[in-house]
C-alpha cells in the first residue's frame, strides 16, 4: 500500500509543532510553526547551525544529543532554552535513521522550562533532583510513562581528570554533564553523586546498553550502569516514594564504603536497609513504641513558659528527624501524628492545675487530610479540659501540596479552640506562599536564622523584618534554637514574642519550668558600663 506523503506529514505533526531535518548539524528543512516555536520563519531557519539557535548554556546539551544520534535510537524528549530574548523553551525529540548520511530528524514543540535553568556543564544538585524526580514520578503515574533510574559510573574518570590541565578538566566535565543530561528524561533529571558517579531518570523504551555505549563514546571512559526499574502502575505511589528514600540512603551511605562496592551492590543494600527500617518503623508506630519529650517555649517578656513543645522519641532516644522523614515517605506519618496527639491530650487531661499547654507537630502530609481534623474534634469532645490548651505546629518536612485545603483544616482546628503555628519559617522555599495562603496564630522562625545571630555582628535585621511582617498580619512569633543570652536579647529587641532553645531547657521527659538564664558576661559588661541606670 502506498501512503500519500501528506498523510504521513499529518501524522508527524500530530506530535510536534515543527519538523526539522538537519544535515551535518545545519537545518536542511523546516516544516511547521517555525515562527511560533523558534521565533524564526521556515526559510529563516534553513541553513542555520542548529545548536547555535539555543542558549549558550544549553548548546553543549544539544551537541551531546546530536553527537551520538547515529545509532538510530530515538532520543529525548529534552527541554532546551532558546537563544535570544524571551526565555523561550522547546521540547525536542530526535532520531537519525542509520545509513542516512548524517541526516537527523527532529520533532520540536514549544515547552515550559522544567525547573531552574542549568548553566553549561552543571547538573541539578541533589535537592532539586529530588523535586524533579517527584514531578516525573507523578507524571509517570498519570501518563503511564515507564521510567527507570540509572546509576551511572565512569571508570577512572577522577584519575583522568587529575592528569589534565584545569582547562582540559573543565572541558571534560562539560562533556560529561552534557552527555549525562542528554540521557535523562526531559534533559534535566540527572544529578552527580560523586566525582565519577551519576544518577538519572530515563524512559524504559531504550535498552541500557545503548545508553552505556553512547556515554562511553562521549566521555572516552568506560561507562557502567545499574538500572532500577520504577513500576508506575496503580497503587504504587508508595513504592516510588520508598525508592526515593532508598536512593537517599544510597546517596548518604552507599559511597562511603572502603573498598568501594559496585553500584548494584550498594543500591541493593540501600533498598534492603530501607525496607527493613520501614518495617521496624511501622511496628513502632502501630504498637505505640515511642516516648514524648517536652521543651518549654517561653514568653520573652516574662521569662515564663507559655507552653511546651512535644517532640517524639523512638527507642534510640535520639533525634527523630530521619524517622519522621521516613514515616512521611511510607505513609506512616498520619497514624504517628494521631497517636502523638492522643498522648498529648491525655497528658493535658491528667494535668491537675490545668496550666499546661502543649504544642504538637503535625506533618504537612497529615494536615491536608480530613481525617486529622475529625480525629481532633472527637478527641476534644471527649476531653473538654484539653480545649484551648492544645497547639498545632504545622511542619514543613513534607511540603503541603494543597494549600487551600490545608487552610480549611487549619481554620477548623482554630475553631476548636487551638492555636496553629507555622513551623520552620524560612527553612523551605515556600514559606512566604504558606504565610500568604494560611491564616495562622503563630510563626516559628527557623533555627538557622536564630542560632548564629550573635556571631559575626549580625544584628537580626532579617528577623526584625519578619516580625514586622507578622505583626502586620497579627501573627505572633517564636524564635527557636535560642542557645545564648545574646541571642535572646537580640530576638527580644527585634520584637519576637516567644523563644525556645537550650537556653531555657532541652527536651525532657516531663514538662518542666524554664531555666532562668544568667546574664551573659558580655551583657553584664555592657550593663556595668552604664551602671548609673541600675540605680
Ligand atoms: P522542630 O519541630 O523544628 O523541632 C525543634 C528541634 O530542634 C528539636 O529536634 C529540638 O530538640 C531541637 N532543639 C531545640 N532547641 C534547640 C537548641 O537550642 N539548639 C539546637 N541545636 N537544637 C534545638 P528534634 O526533637 O530532633 O526534632 C527534629 C524534627 O523532627 C522537628 O523539628 C520536627 O520537624 C520533627 N518532629 C519531632 N517530633 C515530631 C512529632 O511528634 N511529629 C512530627 N510530625 N514531627 C516531629
Ligand atoms: Ca516544631
Ligand atoms: Ca525547626
Would you kindly provide a written description of the structure presented here, covering whatever features stand out?
By secondary structure, the protein is an alpha/beta fold. It folds into three domains: 107 residues, PAS domain (Beta-Lactamase, 2-Layer Sandwich); 149 residues, Reverse transcriptase/Diguanylate cyclase domain (Alpha-Beta Plaits); 235 residues, TIM Barrel (Alpha-Beta Barrel), CATH 3.20.20.450. Helices cover 41% and strands 21% of the residues. The chain is built from 20 helices and 17 strands. It has an eight-stranded mixed barrel, surrounded by five helices. Strands 2-1-5-4-3 form a five-stranded antiparallel sheet. Helix 4 packs across helix 7 and helix 12 packs parallel to helix 14. The longest helix is centred in the middle third of the chain and has 24 residues. It is elongated, with a radius of gyration of 29 Å. The structure holds ligand C2E and calcium ion (2 copies). One calcium ion binds next to strand 13.
Give keywords.
binds calcium ion; TIM Barrel; five-stranded antiparallel sheet; Beta-Lactamase; Alpha-Beta Plaits; alpha/beta; 3 domains; binds ligand C2E; 17 strands; single chain; eight-stranded mixed barrel; 535 residues
